[in-house]
Design goal:
Aspartate Aminotransferase, domain 2; alpha/beta; globular; 14 strands; five-stranded mixed beta sheet; binds ligand F0G; three-stranded antiparallel beta sheet; Aspartate Aminotransferase, domain 1; 16 helices
Length: 459
């Protein structure tokens, strides 16, 4: 008999989590203005708000923390991080930052000016925020297939090369500071980008002489998908694939809270010494001196170890199979989600799960609240709240997809938790006909409103 699959680690330390009653949750979510970000973590049983900074570090990472060198300049920990970035990712120059969006800030403060255009595949919300805040345009060139949740294709995060080339042709060269390739494509459902597509994007960037930036938060999960789905890569190691992916990039921004499996940290890395030097002032002003940026020495040490562990096949297989397991449970109950299962999350298709809630009443947010009420599970809306208003017309933008993202923290929950999540969703799905009303906004900020929005139930 074939042995069943099991995790490639065992558990050395546990953290207790709390269950609650539906009555308690009704009170808490009301007090939180129906914004899941405003809940206290103790009011949540299974927290799938994000896989960012919520993973469990290994014994190796914890022990590396004890060896952290906290020198202001030239710390050993900085050099540990530098060596890992060079050896695993292939970049010679980098600046540490406190997280991914800080890396974006350092980079974009240097290269973006008003009126610029940055084409890419479904820019992440802080990336879009940084671009739009500077009065530039984040131009989405993702393949159209990504919007069809039931279509099962291996690389649904890809860039549409025709759309990209059109953008590069139509925009004056000096208005394009870089093309942004996000691996995996978070917003489209944690969907990977194929190596073929990376090569295609890189070729266009070279043809039109623009830089290629990789938003690399989940680069290792992307490499795992290339290994397991793309012809010609099955016998390569994840580390070899990672090296090839980054060989096409000029710049990478990294939220280390994902695939480097640390709770805080990030960096921006460069192939060009000149660009690295140009960005240094923004690092010093906003983050810290160039050899620590926003990070303590111990955190840089843990990050260096995490980059190595995070690019090991056994770890990635355990991680991605857990997400697939949750997907297979939803299949059993007929609950539609962005197919195939993503690397870090399942994105439930809220429009199909709650067909009776009008789009103006925030369908995916309504589903998120229902799931919380059902079982104390916290997901996050990737729908009209996040899509925000058009920066020019100030009209609400209603995206094609209304998704509830259930992000799975790394090495944190067991498959029993996945079972609870699936059944809770099934219970909501079973009473979908009776859920007809959503929420209205009573307060919102002019940019990135979803984080701090206040809502009221429509009665
Ligand atoms: N790029 C991508 C693709 C991301 O998913 C994130 C963060 C960032 C950049 C910004 O990095 O959080 O370290 O500042 N994503 C988290 C999420 C927050 O929940 O998906 P950060």
């Amino acid at each position: 008999m074939e042995l069943p699959f099991a995790e490639s680690y065992r558990i050395k330390m546990v953290e207790n989590i709390k269950k609650s009653t539906r009555e308690e949750r009704e009170q808490w979510i009301k007090e939180a203005k129906y914004n899941l970000f405003f809940l206290k973590s103790d009011q949540v049983f299974i927290d799938l708000l994000t896989d960012s900074g919520t993973g469990a570090m290994s014994d190796q990472q914890w022990s590396a923390m004890m060896l952290g060198d906290e020198s202001y300049a030239g710390a050993r920990s900085y050099y540990n991080m530098k060596n890992a970035i060079k050896e695993i990712l292939g970049f010679d120059y980098f600046l540490p930052t406190h997280q991914g969006r800080a890396a974006e800030n350092v980079l974009y403060s240097t290269i973006i000016k008003e009126g610029d255009v940055l084409p890419g595949n479904s820019h992440f919300d802080t990336t879009k925020g940084h671009i739009e805040f500077r009065r530039a345009v984040a131009l989405d060139c993702t393949i159209d297939e990504a919007a069809d949740t039931q279509l099962e294709i291996p690389f649904k995060g890809n860039v549409d090369l025709k759309k990209l080339e059109k953008a590069l042709q139509e925009t004056p060269r000096e208005k394009i500071p870089c093309v942004i390739l996000t691996v995996t494509n978070n917003t489209a459902g944690g969907q990977p980008v194929s190596m073929e597509n990376v090569r295609g994007v890189s070729a266009l960037c070279k043809k039109y002489n623009v830089l290629l930036q990789m938003d690399s938060a989940r680069f290792a999960e992307n490499a795992y998908f290339i290994k397991t789905r793309e012809k010609g890569y099955e016998n390569k190691t994840v580390k070899e694939i990672v090296k090839e992916m980054f060989s096409y990039a000029d710049i990478m921004t990294m939220s280390s809270k994902k695939d480097a499996i640390v709770n805080m940290g990030g960096f921006v890395a460069f192939k060009s010494e000149e660009l690295w030097k140009n960005c240094q002032k923004f690092c010093i002003m906003n983050e810290g001196f160039v050899t620590y940026g926003g990070m303590s020495g111990r955190d840089m040490n843990a990050l260096a170890v995490g980059l190595d562990e995070g690019t090991e096949f056994d770890y990635l297989e355990t991680r991605i199979k857990q997400v697939e397991y949750l997907g297979s449970k939803l299949d059993e109950y007929g609950i539609p989600y962005q197919r195939p299962a993503g690397g870090h999350a399942i994105f439930v298709d809220a429009k199909q799960v709650l067909p009776n809630v009008p789009k103006e009443e925030f369908i995916a947010q309504t589903l998120g609240i229902e799931l919380y009420l059902e079982a104390g599970i916290r997901g996050v809306e990737v729908g009209a709240l996040l899509a925000d208003r058009d920066p020019v017309t100030r009209e609400n933008r209603y995206p094609k997809l209304e998704l509830l993202r259930l992000a799975i923290p790394r090495r944190t929950y067991t498959n029993n938790h996945m079972d609870v999540i699936a059944v809770a969703l099934k219970n909501v799905y079973d009473r979908r006909e009776s859920i007809t009303k959503g929420y209205k906004i009573i307060h919102e900020e002019p940019i990135m409103r979803h984080f701090t929005v206040e809502l009221e139930a429509i009665l």
